[in-house]
UniProtKB/TrEMBL annotation:
Superkingdom classification of source: Eukaryota
Gene behind the chain: Lhfpl2
Protein name as it appears in the record: LHPL2 protein
GO biological process, one term: single fertilization
Organism: Rhipidura dahli
PANTHER family noted in UniProt: LHFPL TETRASPAN SUBFAMILY MEMBER 2 PROTEIN (PTHR12489:SF19), LIPOMA HMGIC FUSION PARTNER-LIKE PROTEIN (PTHR12489)
Positions of transmembrane segments: 12-35, 96-120, 132-154, 183-203
Keywords: Fertilization, Membrane, Transmembrane, Transmembrane helix
Main location class: membrane
InterPro entries for this protein: LHFPL (IPR019372)
Keyword Transcription regulation in annotation: no
Localization of this protein: Membrane
Short name of any one Pfam family annotated for the protein: L_HMGIC_fpl
GO CC, any one term: membrane
Membrane topology: Multi-pass membrane protein
Length: 228
């Protein structure tokens, strides 16, 4: 018989698992990993809100995407265009960034799988006599290691020609030059930290769903068990 078991700790672990997976996925897809040096606006660029000239624009560069401002020849205005600069994997600007993409993608795939499975842990707590929480926690720990490897390798690619075009000639491996780090990089770091927190917290979720109080509720014949 299926028993729906919901505890404060198991629900918190499930929510954190989903948040971490989405945070890492959004960061990976974003072009805001590097914020390039300011591009001065021309005299024709006018801010529609103030009527004055627009502030200098900062192009952004991601692992495989970028955001830049393009000019419209007919309308004397500029729009920001975001999209992938690499049409295939081999066109990613640096071998280090290719490795980063691989490690991050592997970590994110594991996190998304765990996030999907975590939703069903309310009904199924074990498979083949093994706790789903413990298995998911182990997978989250492995995913965290993949994410760390990707984030360590990413700065090694700052010396590629693509990064130099955005960050100036002083950019090199582990040196930003005229660039600064964007929100996507910090989100990826924060998601990695939360991944290990989830891996540790999965043990607490397992303890909460197999506690004596839960067993007492099951023995009383209850199918829906909610405990703080």
């Amino acid at each position: 018989m299926c028993h729906v078991i919901v505890t404060c700790r198991s629900m918190l672990w499930t929510l954190l698992s989903i948040v971490v997976a989405f945070a890492e996925l959004i960061a990976f897809m974003s072009a805001d990993w590097l914020i390039g040096k300011a591009k001065p606006s021309s005299s024709e660029d006018v801010d529609n809100r103030t009527g004055g000239p627009q502030e200098p624009y900062h192009p952004t560069l991601g692992i495989y995407g970028r955001c830049t401002r393009i000019s419209h020849m007919q309308f004397s205005r500029r729009d920001t265009l975001c999209g992938p600069y690499a049409e295939n994997f081999s066109e990613i600007a640096s071998g280090f960034w290719q490795a980063t993409a691989i490690f991050l993608a592997m970590g994110i795939m594991i996190l998304c799988t765990v996030a999907f499975v975590s939703v069903f842990t309310m009904c199924v707590q074990s498979i083949m006599k093994k706790s789903i929480f413990n298995v998911c926690g182990l997978l989250q720990g492995i995913a965290g290691l993949f994410l760390i490897l990707g984030l360590i390798l990413y700065p090694a690619g700052w010396g590629c020609q693509k990064a130099i075009n955005y960050c100036g000639s002083y950019a090199s491996a582990y040196k930003l030059g005229d660039c600064s780090l964007g929100w996507a990089f910090y989100t990826a770091i924060g998601g990695t930290v939360l991944t290990f927190i989830c891996a540790v917290f999965s043990a607490q979720a397992e303890i909460a769903t197999s506690s004596d109080k839960v067993q007492e509720e099951i023995e009383e014949g209850k199918n829906l068990i909610c405990l703080l």
